[in-house]
């Protein structure tokens, strides 16, 4: 049973999505029940998979019993198990929040939500490049429709940019996969790692071109400079539960960079080793600087949170650029923190906008809010967590990142990371004072918010103190994950026991 459990994160949202899309209109309570139950079951499955992966053993599921490198395989290791769990935790907060009424503003919300989970989970589990492309397309197709959920001029305009850029990225992805297949004769990532190590020198240029094209695609998904311009408006205009789920979307790109380049272009790749390193390192620093400027310039709470996502993208990519197990461990801890906290802040921004009436989420003066004290407390927790102020998880995660820097890396990372944190703190302080302190004239506005919305926000923001309380075991797991990634031979021998010995 445990062997078949690996396929559940793909099958469960697939089946749930089919059930939810079977009838387009009506049956609101049924659709909510199916969606929430499926997401909760997904959480339990991912917890079981995490416990299985924590043993250090890498397991896989061969669809149709066709073994690698010819068949489709889903691979479970520490990294994929961690990403699945973070996705499930984030999804529960978003789907419960949506059940307060956002899901009724358009059709097919819950079915599309489940299918986006299908694409995300599949991307984290797949063991070959072509199916990584397939799952990217599944999650993107669902995200196109979810971004337009509820309609509106701003959403349509943002979705056009989002769709066009991602279609271009998908075309480039397919071309890159074709180049790498032509040069190596395989699509399985473990097998490709072996082929790259044995590659004749005359094919190095072709593989380098394909690898750098993949980096452009993954950089677009991760929203790295100069490919991030689609993200702020898309995230700011998306429905709150969708924007919260989108917090994991950039992490799919980061995961893909981490997985592909540590496995295929690791120490055994010869002259092709770490070919992504200079690009990732310098562009991550540029992303961090540009996002810090965007945070300071934002005049809308949703847009501010979107730029905070970009700050986290720059920070995480810097961890990849440092290319050490300590840096990878730090970025994984920070990834858990930033995904859940920024997701919670998107939901909180929606609640604040609902209570402020016409002022919405714009950072202008408005009337006092009916539940302003409770919202202010949640905003305070989320703000100091995401800005990296003690005692919450943001401070711990950024301290780990700073400590992981070595030599000249410190000269670049320390000032940029600290300045971006300062910019985030200043911008959030300004936003908080405008929303809660300067809005004191007139009668209170808004009505009491539904409990489901409160649950979604508290569920996600509670990660800030919990990640500190559990810092020991979480850091131990992320360090073990980093060590496992640094030794790709284990994964290669698991999937290809005969070929692994030959490398």
Structural descriptors:
single chain, 503 residues, mainly alpha, two-stranded antiparallel sheet, 73% helix
Structural features, described:
With 503 residues, this protein is mainly alpha-helical. The chain has a domain at 277-489. Helix content is 73%, strand content 2%. The protein has 22 helices and two strands. A two-stranded antiparallel ribbon has the order 1-2. The two termini are 33 Å apart. 57% of the residues are buried. The model has no long low-confidence stretch (mean pLDDT 91).
The radius of gyration computed from the alpha-carbon positions, rounded to a whole number of angstroms, is 22 Å
Q: Count every beta strand, where a strand is a DSSP E run of 2 or more residues.
A: 2
Structural class based on helices, strands and sheet pairing: mainly alpha
**Strand adjacency order, main sheet:** 1-2
| Backbone shape | globular
**What is the residue-mean pLDDT, rounded to a whole number?**
91
Q: Uncertain regions: pLDDT < 50 for 5+ in a row?
A: none
